[in-house]
Design a protein that fits this description.
The complex is a heterodimer of chains A (about 375) and B (about 900). With about 375 residues, chain A is α/β, with parallel strands linked by helices. Chain A has two domains: about 260 residues, Purple Acid Phosphatase, chain A, domain 2 (4-Layer Sandwich); about 120 residues, no CATH class. In chain A, the strands form three sheets. A six-stranded mixed β-sheet of chain A has the order 4-3-2-1-11-12, covered by helices on one side. Chain A starts with a strand and ends with a helix. By secondary structure, chain B is α+β, with helices and mostly antiparallel strands. Chain B contains 17 helices and 19 strands. In chain B, strands 2-1-4-5-6-7 form a six-stranded antiparallel β-sheet, covered by helices on one side. A four-stranded parallel β-sheet of chain B has the order 17-18-3-19. Chain B has a four-stranded antiparallel β-sheet with strand order 10-9-12-13, with no helix packed on it. Chain B is flat and about 205 Å long. The chains are: A alpha/beta (about 375), B alpha+beta (about 900).
């Protein structure tokens, strides 16, 4: 049995614009740490080598430091690592894999699948890559790369001279699971299955989807997902696969890697209680500094509660990696109520001013928005004024 | 608040005094003389509430009567709010503080607690600030009360205005201050944005520019990457095309080889065909040449005969010309000899004539020299005379004038002088002066007596005649004229006019001689120099000498004979020369004709020689052709050669047709085109490779700059700045909207609550000033303008009395409004209305009486008449 690590979509050097500077620094560092942790863990788990199925770097134009730090993390692992250029870091003229920085800093255990020539990794195992030559290839790269390979010998065949197992490493959308059906570079699932039927492949390690995805019933075609999540749209990120190849059997075991979380809460707010419930929810959230929170708010709140909500969100921003209040203004209506001002003891001209602003605040235009903010400000100042 | 009673003990100059004030809302007039302690009342109330009994404040210490160590005591009974109380304090000695509250619930306090409780009740029920602001103290300047910021008044006014400003206006003001402060975080007081927003916008602009720059670089890099990919693809395409074209070029080269072989075969045929054609031509030429040679020989022979005959004629002509020429040449020799002789004679005659001419010239030159010498000698004499002569026309004229004057004067003298006539009767010797004159009988002698005349007949008589005295003047003139004349003569050294005239004549003659010499010199010398004349004379002498020495003077005797001889010799010579030239011409003509005939003979001789060789050649050629074969053989060979030529031509055309069938030009064009295409493809391939190298190098260099991450960082900063700016602008807009709304409502409210006070002031004021009295209050509730009879004046420009009256009316109006609110205070006016006239005092009395119905008014005065007209007032006399 041969065990190896299937991972991909590290996208080292990725920037999330919504993250504040300090959170971005943490995000960046944690992605290097995830690679380091994953590779060391893989070695400890008995993996003979690791294949990275594309998008090692966020782009070909990553910072020199990103390249060096990524390679240093890989170099710390005591197992061979085979990198596949993907759509983010294709083998075009600007390829990071041929840059002087990469070439100079590349540790010995790291190699790049520059073409589709089989690489012998020992123990009768061959690794064959289908690297991306450009950002936007106009055809499937997998079948042409693997279709011409010699069929594998049956495991246990006496005096078999060729390899026993062959791992294809590829990147891109598989037409059976991809959302974008009109991409000319989609990998045809049926043709891939035929490669297996013709004994040209034992396992196909795919990259591109950031969510862990099993693509066939036999469990021979997998997306390992990204080791750290990168977006709210990902369903099962933060994973890697430890794959065992044995005679007649392939077993891929997902392993949790990521520490970051992208969480989206869709919450309806109609009262102070709802706001307080949200506050409690945020307060109870674990590992806030590595949590990117998206609040999709709807409902209607009076001014006082909106002011409280603003406080809750602002306080949350100090604790969470990021809080993004999402959605349209009209989804969460702010309705100034008498109760908002009743306990403020406002009378005379102040009372009149409030009435004027409330009239404007009822509108849905920009002035209405400003008026609601003005009223919220008034409530806050009135409460702070002795 | 209402003061019911006040009692003072040992308070300044007051030993003991108790004042009980009127009942419900009345006017109390406290009247008394100065120094009786009226002003102490309001002071005592303040001290009672403000100062503890152990206070060492100056105003407390000053209450103790001077020089008396006694305790000062103040006791006050009052109603305030719900409270009814008695409050007393003793200062300086046996200090104590007591407070008894009777309503609403009995309370009793002493000491510090009493003080604090009393203070608490006061502040709870009275607006202390308003109370103090409304007072008028003795001697106080006439001014308006400062009640603008007064809470009670504001509340009362707000209440009167319907609560627009709010019952808790302090809170509103605090809120407004907080909102203003918030507004000023983003805007200046004048409403301009603060720097913070501008700075953030500028930072955003910088971030946007930086991001745009990086986007540009990234796009440029992406473009280059794409270009690289395209160049690689293009390179691959061109490489394939290169292979295809190389194969095509190979194929065309094979075709061209076949073509070459065919070409060589055709060329072989062509060369042999050419040779056969030459042979054929040669054969045909032989036949023709033989026919031509025969004809040519006959022509040459005929021409040779013609030339022989002509040569014979020419020889005869030559002989005749030669004899004529010999004869002419002999004649010429004779003529030449005669001409020589005649030329010598003519030359000798000419020389002779020249000799005589030169001799004449030499003589003439001698005469000229003499004339010149003579003229020069005469001129020299004349010049010497001119040099020594002082006589000029001018001087002579002057002498002539003096002489004429002398003659005139002398005539005048004589005419004026008496005369003495002596008639001689017999001969007698008469002595006249020293002179003896012999006179004959019958002689008559007359003398003019111009000077004393001494006549004597010796031995007989002596007669002296003297002219009269009247001639003296004439004589002086005469003397003067004589002197002038003599002086003029002496100047040029002559004795008299005649001599001078002679000398002048000589001078003029000398001048004429000098002029004559100049003319002679010009005539004789002409333009020549004297030296040239000399040289010419010398040359002529030499030539004459030589001629005489060499020829003995010639045949002629003079110039004319010489001229005649020379002319004759020349004519003879000319005649012979003419004959000789004529003979020469004839000889030349004969020679020319001889040359012409000689040339013709040479030409014909040469042609005859050529003809001989041509005849030989023609004979030889005809003989050569004839020598090899006869005409029939020659024609047979030509026919054979024609057959061979035809055979080879057919071979050549056959191969040639084969070649044409393969379209060699088109084949070569296509081959050349394929080669050109191959070269073009290879050139393009090199260009693509070069471009790829350039772009790839640029891509590599830019790729190392980490552009994407730099862009990400820049974009993140831009987004964060934009978000932050959006938030800041949103907050600023909210603050601005809140501030402006609040301020607008506040200003409206202030305008509204000023109205009740304005109404009250005008209501009271109309009692004093009439029905058209109007005032305008400012935000501080002070009267800004007063309008009366349609005329509006600023408060400060009103008279002192009017200002005082309006000041009191305003206080009364404030106090009345506050009183209506239930938190009224007593109005204490100490020594007021000092500036009002009696009429106004009457009307002010009515005003005070009206006010007294609403609040407690305490008037302190030492002039009771001022308040005489306050109806219903209680008077307390001290």
């Amino acid at each position: 049995m041969v065990r190896f690590l299937h991972t991909g979509d590290w996208q080292l050097g990725m920037t999330r614009h919504f993250l504040p500077e300090e959170a971005q620094a943490r995000f960046t560092q944690d992605r290097f740490d995830a690679v380091r942790r994953m590779l060391v863990g893989a070695h400890e788990a008995g993996c003979r080598f690791a294949v990275v199925a594309g998008d090692v770097f966020e782009t070909n134009q990553v910072d020199r430091r990103t390249v060096v730090r990524g390679l240093e993390a890989m170099g710390e692992a005591a197992l061979p690592i085979l990198l596949l250029p993907g759509n983010h870091d294709p083998l075009d003229a600007s390829s990071v894999f041929t840059s002087p920085t990469f070439v100079e800093a590349k540790p010995d255990n790291v190699s790049v699948l520059f073409d589709s020539r089989p690489v012998d990794v020992g123990d009768g195992v061959e690794v064959v890559g289908a690297p991306w030559p450009t950002k936007r290839p106009l055809e499937d790269l997998v079948v042409p790369a693997f279709g011409a390979l010699e069929p594998l010998a049956e495991p246990g065949t006496p005096n078999a001279s060729g390899p026993t197992y062959r791992i294809g490493v590829a990147h891109g959308g598989l037409d059976s699971v991809a959302a974008m059906r009109d991409d000319p570079a989609l990998i045809p699932f049926d043709a891939v299955r035929q490669l297996f039927d013709e004994r040209r492949l034992t396992y196909l390690a795919l990259g591109d989807r950031h969510s862990l995805t099993r693509c066939d019933e036999e469990g021979r075609i997998w997306y390992a997902g990204s080791p750290e999540p990168t977006d709210h749209s990902e369903s099962a990120p933060g994973k890697a696969l430890v794959v065992d190849l044995g005679p007649g059997a392939v077993r891929a075991l997902p392993v949790d890697i990521g520490r970051w979380r992208f969480i989206q809460h869709e919450i309806e707010l109609y009262s102070a209680n709802d706001v307080e419930a949200l506050a409690k929810k945020l307060e109870d959230a674990p590992d806030k500094e590595r949590t990117v929170l998206r609040l999709v708010l709807s409902g209607a709140l009076q001014l006082t509660d909106k002011a409280r909500l603003d406080d809750v969100v602002e306080n949350g921003r100090d604790l969470f990696a990021s809080i993004d209040v999402w959605g349209r203004q009209q989804d969460l209506k702010i309705l100034p109520q008498d109760a908002d001002f009743g306990d403020l003891g406002l009378a005379g001209f102040a009372h009149e001013a409030v009435q004027t602003l409330r009239t404007i605040a009822a509108r849905d235009d920009e002035e209405g928005f400003d008026a609601r903010n003005a009223l919220t400000l008034l409530v806050r100042l009135a409460r702070c004024t002795p | 608040m209402r003061i019911r009673r006040i009692r003072l003990s040992n308070y300044r100059g007051i030993d003991k005094r108790e004042l009980v004030f009127a009942g419900e809302e009345e006017v109390t007039i406290v009247q008394g003389p100065n120094e009786v302690g009226k002003s102490c009342i309001s002071e005592a109330v303040d001290i009672l509430f403000d100062c503890r009994d152990d206070s060492r404040a100056r105003r407390v210490l000053s209450t103790q009567p001077v020089g008396r160590d006694v305790a000062t005591e103040i006791e006050l009974e009052l109603e305030t709010g719900p409270y009814v109380l008695t409050y007393r304090k003793r200062f300086h000695r046996d200090r104590k503080t007591e407070l008894e509250v009777r309503a609403p619930a009995p309370e009793s306090w002493t000491g510090r607690e009493a003080h604090d409780r009393a203070r608490q009740i006061l502040e709870e029920t009275v607006d202390v600030a308003l109370w103090k602001a409304l007072r008028i103290h003795q001697g106080m300047a006439v001014s308006q009360a400062n009640v603008g910021q007064n809470t009670s008044l504001a509340a009362a006014l707000d209440h009167a205005a319907g609560g627009l400003r709010g019952s808790s206006s302090d809170e509103n003001e605090s809120l407004f201050e907080a909102v203003t402060e918030e507004f000023l975080r983003y805007y200046t007081a004048t409403g301009r944005e603060r720097r913070e927003l501008g700075v953030m916008r500028a930072a955003l602009e910088v971030a946007e520019e930086r991001t745009a720059e990086l986007v540009g670089k990234c796009r440029s890099l992406d473009g280059d990457v794409l270009r690289c990919t395209h160049l690689v693809t293009e390179g691959q395409r061109l490489a394939l095309r290169d292979v295809e074209l190389a194969e095509e070029v190979g194929r065309w080269h094979g075709e061209l080889e076949v073509l070459k072989t065919l070409g060589e075969e055709a060329e072989g045929f062509r060369l042999r065909w050419e040779k056969a054609r030459e042979t054929l031509t040669l054969s045909r030429e032989r036949v023709a040449r033989r026919q031509e040679g025969t004809r040519r020989l006959a022509e040459l022979m005929a021409e040779s005969d013609r030339i022989g005959a002509e040569l014979l004629d020419l020889e005869r002509s030559t002989e005749r010309i030669r004899s004529e020429l010999l004869e002419a040449e002999a004649s010429l020799q004779r003529l030449l000899a005669a001409e020589g002789e005649l030329r010598g004679a003519a030359e000798a005659a000419r020389v002779d004539f020249e000799h005589w001419s030169e001799r004449e010239e030499l003589e003439e030159l001698g005469r000229r020299k003499e004339r010149i010498a003579q003229a020069r000698a005469e001129a020299a004499d004349a010049q010497r005379l001119l040099a020594t002569s002082r006589v000029t026309t001018h001087v002579v004229d002057r002498i002539r004038e003096a002489y004429n004057e002398l003659l005139v004067t002398r005539a005048v003298l004589q005419s004026k002088s008496p005369s003495l006539e002596v008639q001689v009767i017999s001969d007698v010797e008469l002595e006249v002066g020293n002179e003896r004159i012999q006179l004959r009988a019958g002689d008559v002698r007359e003398d003019a007596i111009t000077a004393p005349l001494d006549l004597a007949v010796p031995g007989l008589l002596r007669l002296v005649v003297r002219p009269g005295e009247d001639l003296a003047e004439v004589r002086r003139k005469l003397d003067s004229a004589r002197n002038t004349y003599m002086t003029a003569c002496q100047e040029i050294g002559v004795e008299d006019l005649e001599t001078a005239l002679e000398l002048l004549k000589q001078r003029q003659q000398a001048e004429a001689k000098v002029a004559e010499r100049d003319r002679t010199m010009r005539t004789e010398l002409g333009e020549g120099w004297t030296e040239a004349l000399e040289a010419r004379q010398e040359e002529l002498r030499r030539r004459v000498f030589l001629h005489v020495r060499e020829s003995g003077g010639g045949n002629a005797t003079d110039r004319e004979t010489a001229r005649t001889a020379a002319r004759s010799a020349e004519e003879n010579l000319e005649h012979v020369r003419s004959q000789r030239e004529s003979t020469n011409a004839r000889i030349e003509a004969l020679r020319a004709r001889g040359e012409e005939i000689s040339a013709r003979r040479r030409g014909l001789g040469a042609r005859a020689e050529i003809l001989v060789s041509e005849v030989h050649a023609a004979q030889s050629e005809v003989g050569d052709v004839d020598g090899r074969s006869d005409q029939a053989d020659l024609e047979g060979s030509a026919t054979e050669a024609a057959a061979h030529e035809e055979e080879l031509r057919a071979g050549y055309e056959r191969v040639r047709a084969e070649l044409e069938k393969r379209a060699p030009d088109a084949l070569r064009e296509r081959a050349a085109n394929a080669e050109a295409a191959l070269a073009k493809v290879r050139r393009e391939l090199r260009e693509v490779e070069t471009q790829h190298t350039e772009v790839a190098t640029r891509v590599k260099l830019l790729s190392e700059e980490g552009l994407a991450e730099r862009f990400d960082r820049s974009e993140t900063e831009r987004l964060h700045l934009a978000t932050e700016l959006d938030r800041l602008e949103s907050r600023a807009r909210a603050a601005a909207m809140l501030f402006h709304t609040l301020r607008k409502r506040r200003e409206e409210a202030r305008a509204a609550y000023v109205q009740p006070l304005t109404d009250r002031v005008e209501s009271l004021g109309r009692i004093v000033f009439g029905a058209d009295f109007e005032v305008e209050l400012d935000d501080d509730l002070r009267v800004r303008n007063r309008t009366l009879g349609g005329q509006t004046l600023p408060f400060d420009s009103l008279s002192t009395g009017t200002r005082e009256q309006i000041g009191i009316i305003t206080r009364l109006a404030c106090a009345m409004i506050v009183a209506e609110d239930g938190s009224g205070v007593p109005l204490i006016l100490d020594d007021a209305l000092g500036y009002s006239d009696p009429e106004r005092l009457r009307e002010m009395g009515a005003v005070l009486a009206v006010a007294g119905r609403r609040l407690q008014v305490i008037l302190l005065t030492s002039v009771p008449d001022r308040y005489l007209h306050v109806g219903g007032a209680q008077v307390v006399r001290l």
